[in-house]
Amino acid sequence: MEVKDSNGTLLQEGDSVTVIKDLKVKGSSTVIKRGTIVKKIRLTEDEGEIEGKVEKTTMVLKTMFLKKV
C-alpha cells in the first residue's frame, strides 16, 4: 500500500507533515491551523488517511490536506 501526500510524495511511518489548509475538527469547535506540523505519523489501513498527534490529541487526518516536511 502506498500512502501519498497532496503533492504525490510517498509517506512513511515516522515522517513529519504540515497541514496545508485550516481544518475543522468534527465534533468540536477546534480548528487545526494551516502550517501546523504533525510529527511521527502512523499509517492506517486506509491509504487516504494517517494518524498523528495534534496538540497532544491523536487524530486521523486526510492525506489530501497534508504536505511532507
UniProtKB/TrEMBL annotation:
Residue ranges constituting the Protein YjdM C-terminal domain according to the UniProt record: 3-69
Taxonomy, superkingdom: Bacteria
Pfam families hit by this protein: YjdM (PF03831)
Protein name (record): PhnA protein
